[in-house]
Amino acid sequence: MKKFIALTLCLVMAAGLLGGCGGDSGDSTKGDASGSQESTTQSESSEDNAGDEESSSHLNPAGTYPIIKDGTMEMSVYTLSMPNVTDLETNDFTRYLEELTGVKLTFYTGGSNDWEEKLNLLLQTNDYPDVILGVSPNIERYGVEEGIFIPLDEYLTEENVPNYLKVMEEFDLNVTREIDGKIYSIAGINDCYHCAHARKLWVNTEHLDAMGVKAPTTIEEFYEVCKKFMEYKPDGIAVAGASRGWYTRVQDLLIDPFVFKPIRSQTFISRDDVALNKATGEIECVAVTDEYKEAMKYIKSLYDLGAIYDGNFTQESGQMKTLINQADEPVLFFADGTISDVIDSASNNELYRKYAPIAPLEGPNGVATAWTMPNFGVGSGAFVITDKCKDPEAALRWIDFFFSEIGDLCSQFGPEEGVDWVLNPEGKIGLNEKPALYEVLNIYSAEPQNHDWQDIGIRVATSSHRLGQAVDADVDPYSPEGLEKLLYDASEEFYAPYTDNGSHIQLNGLLVTDEERSSVATIVVEIEKIIEETSVAFMTGAKDIDAEWDNYIDSLEKAGLSKLLEVYTIAYNRTYGK
Prior knowledge:
The chain contains 19 helices and 17 strands. By secondary structure, it is of the alpha/beta class. A hairpin with a 5-residue loop joins strand 7 (about 275) and strand 8.
């Protein structure tokens, strides 16, 4: 790092400042993204750069730094603020990045709850920055329709983003294309292995041993174990879950043995239960299938047994956590993406060690299904360039650093090799039991600090990168340090083998027009309400399944289910070129 600092300081002293993305050097101030110059429109930018062989003559070759041959440039950035990063302007990684690349940064920020509102206000008042980083803005509106975000297709070359193109070979670059077929953004990548298998069920093994039974593997065995538990601990809760939390909906795990249960729609952010039928290739709502009806009956039988806790359908994960951590250990099974969300591995390690994951249950057809989704961990919108930016090529070469071998390590853990992280640590193995790619020395902390960006900005973490982190070969999976190992092993052994068994496939976000989105805006709200409320009524017996099923189907049709499926089908065919 010292070499980079010294080199950049010499260059700065020897050369004048070069105006960059945000206008003339020194004119940009916080709260005034436009600087002192007039903004450049999308069409002007395209005309200035298209086919201009000299357009990048002022830049050093990609991957060499600083980015600008003579001097520096300024760039204003909109991104998230987080409680555990005290000041982005003075952050150690920010300073390292500025000294390395020669790009001086000015930040505009919004919090996790208000970033979208703040960004939209900036974009609507023409007071917006050069680039937007790590917040997934509305590209359809501000890129495709209004032209504020510029298309990047012509700039996505080996000369500008070699690291990015290499990383994206593992994925489908087309996931970043918008409805007009153009690419307006750089993708963010966080291919978390255990997150792709996050629908997990945990069981108290001490209770199983006390009852003299093994972990169930079928829906019939699950029923019998629950029945025995209610006899063993009459005041206990056989199956706990929560309506809000990270994969805490236990009913989804119990529907999967009958029919694949999608998570919330990635297209309309709605629990409309729409998925792709693997057998027919049709877009369907699984909540109207005969298999779903049978799942409702099965869960109702568990409810009648007293095994299903009423609060599962209304409580938040924090309330479930309180139940599970009671002194008398009243809960046998619970649903959660990670056990650490529910039981603290340090303060309550004795209880923590009693819970283990179990594999998905086999359904009536003898098949066990684990939830996952295609192209997991990659999505568009992580970095966009606005028409304020005078030098899109330089901006892309700046973001390309994050896709280098050390880019993500520097931003996440700090810029100092040997202090924050080490590459290829000798004798170390990764989570995947292969030679480790790196070892983290500056461990992530939720406490306020100003050394690195942590969860701010862009993540570039492929599966091989995440699984390449060094772990102690003898780490105790149930120690606080062993969480990643515990979740990896659980995913690898209990869930990954069953992800191809589902009847349907979870849909990624699809390309829809504003008109299409508006046409179903009311429909998706009503569909979710009917499915969620009626399903709970079926599972608890508030409504008779056989007597009310036809009325339930009819209410979905009247709410516009056919219209919704039609829009999904059009969007699916558009997205995948069918």
